[in-house]
Amino acid sequence: xVQKRRRGAELEQAIYQAAxxxxxxxxxxxxxxxxxxxxxxxxxxxxxxxWQTPFSLAIAAIQDKxxxxxxxxxxxxxxxxxxxREDLLQLLQRxxxxxxxxxxxxxxxxxxxxxxxxxxxxxxxxxxxxAIDLNALDHILTRAKKRGEIVKTDLPEEIALLPFDWLRxxxxxxxxxxxxxxxxxxxxxxxxxxxxxxxxx
Length: 201
Prior knowledge:
- It is built from ten helices and no strands.
- It has about 200 residues and is an all-alpha fold.
- The mean pLDDT is about 85.
């Protein structure tokens, strides 16, 4: 029986699934196009045409998993909170899930082996991620204002991104992230900042 030739999204998903399986079982140090092609039942040339390096394929596969399992990016999922506090908790919980996926696939090992060219990819990845996080925060603050909550919206970007940076550090250094810690972050740090008056008020 002649095997059906896969194309487009179907082929891409087969490659991503093979890549994720190899990353989880062998790690990035042993990750290569030949093994991915063999497991995905395709050719190396197909993979070479789509991704320049194993590193770029690994990042793409992890990002695809995060997006599909989270039903979208952190700035386009449906918020169901009835207050700024509830929305912030939902956003940060979603962010933790995304970062945990990177951790599950040995992202620290991957980053440690990045070349100079791949570091450029990492910087772009971080920049894109920051833009998504800031957009998600803007959406949350807009919702809060529509509910009549008084919120501060003029924070510098580096301050607005602090909770994401802190959560990323906690996860990648294997610190326990309990629900209580998340509530303290929101109640004792973020809400006082967002609900404080601007200097011009």
